[in-house]
Amino acid sequence: MGKVKIKKADVWIDMTPMSDVMVLLLTFFMLTSTFVKNEAVKVNTPGSVSEIKVPETEVLQILVDKDGKIFIGLDKPGYMQEMLDNFKSSVSNLNLVPAQEKNFIGLASFGTPVAEMSNVLKHEASEINELQKNMGIPTDSINGGMSEFQMWVDAARNASFGSDMKIAIKADAATPYKVVKKMMSELQDMSENRYYLITSLKKEGE
After folding, report:
1. Angle 177-189/148-157 helices, nearest 10 degrees?
2. Amino acid 178: pLDDT
3. Sheet holding 59-64: strands in order across?
4. Of 167, 153, 160, nearest to 59 (Cα)?
């Protein structure tokens, strides 16, 4: 008896809905992703068992490297621009061209003396970080008044978000205590008595 041949039917799957889902997911991740900028210096924070989270927006981050050099940064380019504008209004000898200002607001953190700002900001971001890592913002008062560090903090809190500004300090585990103490004293002189200390999370008993 002969075999009965079964006719094979082609299987067709409509992939249009799958393509739509993939495009939507891609769009979602593109719109919600944030790009991490390179900080001016690498800081190895001390360990802590505290699990309090630092706010993600409207935060003035103060970096202190192991040599005690201070850098500051804000979480949005618009805030960096406002801080720079406020700082320039209090410093008479700081003249920056638009290209230098663009380089400034694109940085994750910044830390040079006023006298060096114009020269440093002529370079690209990667070069700026290399140049400024050996500088830092001075904490010595100017003619008995505010220090450059205090002027930057004041410029940040006078920006549009200033009433909601939080301060987060990220110091290296090897930073000399006297440097951190002096910086905190300068913040206290400005009535800035509340701030977050950024640490690395570790388990109890480690």
Report:
1. 50
2. 86
3. 70-74, 59-64, 166-171, 196-197
4. 167
CB 204 within 8 A of CB 49: yes
Strands 166-171 and 70-74: unpaired
Strands 166-171 and 59-64: parallel
Contact 199, 50 (CB under 8 A): yes
pLDDT at 8: 66
pLDDT for 10 beyond 70: no
Do strands 59-64 and 196-197 pair parallel, antiparallel, or not at all (unpaired)? unpaired
Nearest to 195 by CA among 6, 64, 98: 64
pLDDT higher than 70, residue 155: yes
CA-to-CA distance for 39 and 45, rounded, in angstroms? 14
Per-residue pLDDT tens over the stretch 15-40: 777 788 888 888 877 777 655 566 65
Q: Is the pTM of this model over 0.85?
A: no
Q: Which residues in 171-201 are b (16+ Cβ under 10 Å) and which e?
A: bbeebeeebbebbbebbeeeebeebbbbbee
- At residue 93, the pLDDT reads 78
